[in-house]
Amino acid sequence: MSERGMKRINLALQGGGSHGALTWGVLDRLLEDPRLEIAEISGTSAGAMNAVVLADGYERGGRDGARQALAAFWRAISRASLFSPMQRSPVDRALGRWSLDNSPGYLLAESMSRLFSPYQLNPMGVNPLRRVLEAQVNFDNVNRCRQIAVHVTATHVRTGRARVFSRGGVTLDAVIASACLPQLFPAVEIEGEHYWDGGFSANPALMPLVTSDESPDIVIVQINPILREECPMSAREIINRVNEISFNTALIKELRTIALMQQVVAEKGVDLGAAGKTHIHLIHADTEVQDLAASSKMNAEWGYLEMLFQRGRSWADTWLAAHFDKIGHESSFDLEKFFDDSVQAPGGRR
Q1: C-alpha distances in angstroms, 254 versus 104, 190, 216, 264?
Q2: Among the four residues 72, 219, 225, 263, which has the most C-beta atoms within 10 Å?
Q3: Is the CB of residue 100 less than 8 Å from the CB of residue 299?
Q4: Would the pTM of this model clear 0.70, i.e. be above it?
Q5: Model confidence over 62-107: pLDDT tens digits?
Q6: For 150-170, what is the mean pLDDT?
Q7: Distance in angstroms (rounded) separating the CA atoms of residues 300 and 304
Q8: Are residues 56 and 138 in contact, defined by beta-carbon separation less than 8 angstroms?
Q9: What confidence tier does 350 reach under pLDDT thresholds 50, 70, 90?
């Protein structure tokens, strides 16, 4: 609890392209709640963008400033996408589908990325996200903000390990690196080293929050579904599922580590400090992301972003109603049950 009686939480924000608008909705609802205070945020890719935009807005105008900054950022993302060749097909528009699976521009870009590297197709490293972030975010404010500490994760290409950029080192390049998909953009060079999307190594990084003394509560906003009830059969479905698994693997490994630490504390009585007292919470709805195709992560039409925003607000509202009282006292996400269920087949078979 803070000195003013508010509950303090740390946030862990996943990446996922325009699906990060789900996280925008969650953040808007959490910022609206006067009972909560955000202490630290760890973000990857779109999660990193949400994190720096929030911190910059908070430094300029408190929680209302943060909400306004997030809305302005996502509006700017949508405006920038108007010039993208990856647009929905006429059939998908007529049927109200947000997927780009039938988009000629998307299919062409996907095919070209399998034949040519971004060093051939995009040698100047042009990235429209850089222009949007430059216009929307004051990184001096992000690093100066004392109320909210931000951690941004990128993947070190040479070693494959995660690098976390924290207060004082959160830069435009760090955020662009955190969102650098290697099929689309050349690696981002920082201090003589090259970096790709942080989702390959930590999506998002939990350890900076586990070791934090600011709050024992980590609220993970997960926008990539862990579960799929049906086995993918088509080529497109297989590609989508491989992407989902790839970008959840690092998170699942870190959750496993936390579960093991908590088991050691419970069974051996070992004092692991803050790391052994972590409360894990998860804001997510598997059923509500089943209809979101992987290709729609590249769709930033305003109507789509608004729909995702409202869905994210609904997630947060439901979670607060069910679990607010547990914040500061216990986890609302059962890690032991999650890992036990994850190795069970339907009907209880292993």
Answers
A1: 38, 26, 16, 15
A2: 219
A3: yes
A4: yes
A5: 999 999 999 999 999 999 999 888 999 998 999 888 999 889 999 9
A6: 97
A7: 7
A8: yes
A9: very low
Residue 31 has, within 13 A of its CA and on its CB side, a CA count of 25
Whether the CB-CB separation of 201 and 155 falls below 8 Å is answered with: yes
Q: How many CA atoms lie within 13 A of 51 on its CB side?
A: 38
Residues 189-218: what's their mean pLDDT? 95
Amino acid letter, 313:
R
Confidence bin at 348 (pLDDT 50/70/90): very low
Return d(Cα 276, Cα 273) in angstroms, integer: 6
Using alpha carbons, select from 289, 290, 282 the residue that is nearest to residue 318.
282
* CB-neighbour burial class of residue 40 (10 A; exposed 0-12, middle 13-18, buried 19+): buried
Residue 349 pLDDT level (bands cut at 50, 70, 90):
very low
Whole-number Å distance between alpha carbons of 31 and 26:
9
User: C-alpha angle with apex 264: 345 to 1, nearest 5 degrees?
Assistant: 100
Peptide bond into 204 cis (omega under 30): yes
